[in-house]
Amino acid sequence: MKMRVSAVQYHLHTIHSFEEFAAQVEHYVKTAQEFESDFVLFPELFTTQLMSIGDGAGKALPIEALPTYTDQYRALFKGLAEQTGMHLIGGTHITSEGGKLYNTAHLFYPDGRIAEQKKLHITPTEVKEWNMGAGDHLQVFDTDKGRIAILVCYDVEFPEIVRMARARGADVLFAPSCTDDRHGFHRVRYTCHARTIENQIYVVTTGTVGALPTVDFMRGNFGQAAVITPNDVPFPPKGILVEGEINGDMIVTADLDLELLSLVREKGSVTTWRDRRTDLYTDWS
Q1: Residue pair 27/251 in contact by the 8 Å Cβ criterion
Q2: What is the pLDDT along the chain (285 residues), one digit of tens a residue?
Q3: Which is deepest, 120, 216, 224, 247, by most CB within 10 Å?
Q4: Which residues of 41-70 are buried (b: 16+ CB within 10 A; e: fewer)?
């Protein structure tokens, strides 16, 4: 089984309407369609661009305003997924539930279904500045191309949750992120590599680029998309199938061979998944 994946280095800039946002999203989706991709990944928090529309007095909308765009956001991505026949992972969008804000990843299926994964681990900034709530359940998603999981940025820095996803059959992890400097970027990137080695899975990651000068905590972005593999003979020596130009406005695309994962789990130079010492620590399966 193979799947073709594209990851969007989404360029944040000030806009003046939802229609501008929709046009930019459609541009990236149609570009990925030209490459006949099966999955398209957008970054975490890319819909904060909607906050730059402002209140008419030149002041950015507050984070609490983003859930008011949820219906339009979902309708946009649902329609594009149905039109193109691709699975769209619409980065994350801020949703509201029970009076609490959540950083929620969305998976849009080609048949119109919509699935969600709330961010499970919340950064200090998200708690202090945005009063964000944490999700309480890991989802694993079945698709006609394979079983996947979506973990958002900070989530991938916690090895236990990725172990759980692999134990439940996920072969590909999509990790949308949003980091404002090199330190944050490399924390996410290095741990993505670690997760591929520990679990013998693929990780597809991307981040926001550009800037929103009027939006607090979104003024700086440092991002790069990458498709990351285990470090073994069937794969590139550095474990990178493809990566973008840092902070560039672009899309990267690569083919994932899921049969190679089964091969290295059984006959690889190392067999890290098989060789877990579940007599010493938790067997998440």
Answers
A1: no
A2: 899 999 999 999 999 999 999 999 999 999 999 999 999 999 999 999 999 999 988 899 999 999 999 999 999 999 999 999 999 999 999 999 999 999 999 999 999 999 999 999 999 999 999 999 999 999 999 999 999 999 999 999 999 999 999 999 999 999 999 999 999 999 999 999 999 999 999 999 999 999 999 999 999 999 999 999 999 999 999 999 999 999 999 999 999 999 999 999 999 999 999 999 999 999 988
A3: 224
A4: bbbbbbbbbbbbbeeeeeebbebeebbebb
Contact 132, 101 (CB under 8 A): yes
What are the structure tokens assigned to 120, written together?
């499970």
- Please compute Rg for the chain using Cα positions: 18
In the three-class reduction of DSSP (H, G, I as helix; E, B as strand; rest coil), residue 140 is classed as coil
List active site positions.
Answer: 44, 119, 153
Give the containing element (helix H, strand E) for 256: strand 250-257
CA distance 201 to 20: 36
Residue carrying structure tokens 């501008």? 20
Six token digits for residue 97: 């539930």
Residue reference for tokens 């398209």: 40
Crossing angle of helices 159-167 and 182-199, rounded to 10°: 40
- 91 Cβ neighbours under 8 A, 6+ residues apart: 10, 41, 42, 43, 44, 45, 46, 47, 105, 106, 176
* Distance in angstroms (rounded) separating the CA atoms of residues 208 and 172: 21
Phi, psi of 8 (to 5 degrees): -95, 125
Alpha helices by DSSP H, the chain: 18-34, 70-84, 124-130, 159-167, 182-199, 258-267
The Cα–Cα gap between 31 and 33 comes to: 5
SS3 category, 72 = helix
